[in-house]
Specification:
rod-shaped; 2 domains; 12 helices; 7-stranded mixed beta sheet; binds 3,4-dihydroxyphenylalanine; protein biosynthesis; ATP binding; 19% strand; single chain; alpha+beta; 338 residues; BirA Bifunctional Protein, domain 2
Length: 338
């Protein structure tokens, strides 16, 4: 029995060391330690060993099992290491990885979202309207006479059908009042189109954000307070804001709003950011006529409206000198806003 155990051990260790892969090693393990393995069968024979030798034979069996198990484990580690090295052949794991580029929101999207967030906190709801408009919603209903220069073919993209690309988002004021009843408090961000010569401050497609608030007793101080608060939220609490009398056909009185731009090393400048005013009663009259009711009775409700250039807000916020950068999608430029 003792010689038998020694022979099993020698053979097992030889087979383990000769194994070329994990499969051969597993076969070797089963042949010795498996249910019908040589050592397992030999151990079963211990019952026939004379009593006085049992302890010694038992010890031999245990020692053989321990040594074989240890040989199996170390051979397995060695085989894995060889396999790992083979898998890496030709690959240099010390090379730096390829960077994963993450996207970010476009500066225009950032400023638009921020403007919407501020105004929504103040109770304005989002409204929408078509970019292909008719003259009625873009001009007539906004009290803009047929001979107004904004309606000129040189300034506006007209389709053969007589429709046009909206020149401003103010048309959404009309679309909203056609179906809502006061109080109305909406904002409408969106594209506007003009046949402008493209240069550092003009594009033929640009972005506006329109606002309209109609209710009982809406006053000029409400307009001023709302827009001053808005601009200070956007540009900083110490931002100076100025209302300059102006003319728009659909508001009376009307203003242009400037913010004071302080660029380090430069004299401060006033920059125009928006138009605004108190809704002209003629606009309400036209709405009521279309609806065939008195929902926007100018004797009962008043309102203010405003429209601002989102591109311009972005240019001021980040000191962008050329509006064309906002549509060129040059990653070197856009990266700065990530
Ligand atoms: N629609 C005007 C423009 O595009 C901006 C504007 C001025 C909008 C006064 C308004 C407003 O709502 O009340 O130049």
């Amino acid at each position: 029995m003792k010689e038998q155990i020694a022979a099993i051990q020698t053979e097992a260790l030889a087979r383990i060391s000769a194994a070329e892969d994990e499969r051969m090693l597993e076969d070797a393990r089963v042949a010795v330690l498996g249910k019908k393995g040589s050592l397992t069968l030999a151990a079963a024979g211990i019952k026939d060993v004379p009593k006085e030798e049992k302890a010694a034979v038992g010890q031999l069996l245990n020692a053989a099992r321990t040594e074989i198990t240890a040989a199996l484990e170390s051979k397995q580690l060695a085989l894995r290491e060889i396999a790992d090295r083979a898998a890496l052949a030709g690959i240099d794991p010390t090379l730096p990885g390829r960077p994963i580029l993450t996207g970010a929101l476009h500066p225009l999207t950032q400023i638009r979202d921020e403007a919407i967030r501020i105004l929504r906190r103040m109770g304005f709801a989002l409204a929408d309207g078509p970019e292909i408009e008719d003259e009625f919603h873009c001009f007539d209903a906004l009290n803009t006479p047929a001979d107004h220069p904004a309606r000129n073919e040189k300034d506006t993209f007209y389709f053969d059908s007589g429709k046009l690309l909206r020149t401003h988002t103010s048309s959404v004021q009309i679309r909203t009042m056609e179906s809502a009843t006061p109080p109305v408090r909406i904002i409408a961000p969106g594209s506007a189109y003009r046949r402008d010569e493209i240069d550092a401050t003009h594009l033929s497609v640009f972005n506006q954000l329109e606002g309209l608030y109609v209710a009982e007793d809406v006053s000029l101080p409400d307009l001023k307070g709302t827009l001053e608060y808005f601009l200070r939220e956007l540009f900083g609490t110490s931002t100076e804001v100025r209302f300059r009398p102006h003319f728009f056909p659909f508001t009376e009185p009307s203003f242009e709003i400037d913010v004071k731009l302080q660029v380090k090393g430069q004299a401060p400048r006033w920059i125009e950011v928006a138009g605004c005013g108190m809704v002209d009663p003629a606009v309400f009259d036209s709405i009521n006529k279309g609806r065939k009711d008195d929902a926007f009775n100018p004797d009962k409700v008043t309102g203010f409206a405003f429209g601002m250039g989102l591109d311009r807000l972005a240019m001021i916020r980040w000191g962008i000198k050329d509006i064309r950068l906002l549509i060129e999608n040059d990653v070197r430029f856009l990266k700065q806003f990530a």
